[in-house]
Amino acid sequence: MPIWKLTPLDLSDPSWEASAHRGLAIVRARDESDARATAAKAFDVKTRFGPRGGAKFPPWKRAALVKAERIDDRRYEAEGPAGVLEPSI
Fold first, then answer.
1. Which of 2, 35, 46, 47 is least surrounded, with the fewest CB atoms within 10 Å of its CB?
2. What is the pLDDT of residues 11-49, one digit of tens each?
3. Residue 51: which domain range?
4. Exposed (0-12), middle (13-18) or buried (19+): which is 75, by Cβ within 10 Å?
């Protein structure tokens, strides 16, 4: 299964309040969409917002906030189930 590197792009965006992790993530997943969904499942958190604060949308599925690229890195085993490899959760 491919290994994906998900890199946050704009940490100043308020949507990052909806994530428990704001750094680089390495994910084993069959495609980019699955990699983003796997990261979202691991890191998304519910937020509270005031009536004028606006909704915060979890960032991991948003290409404008997270760059996704397939990588070949011997540190990460391609065999195994889909999941977050880094950071350890």
1. 46
2. 999 889 899 999 999 999 999 999 999 999 999 988 765
3. 3-86
4. exposed
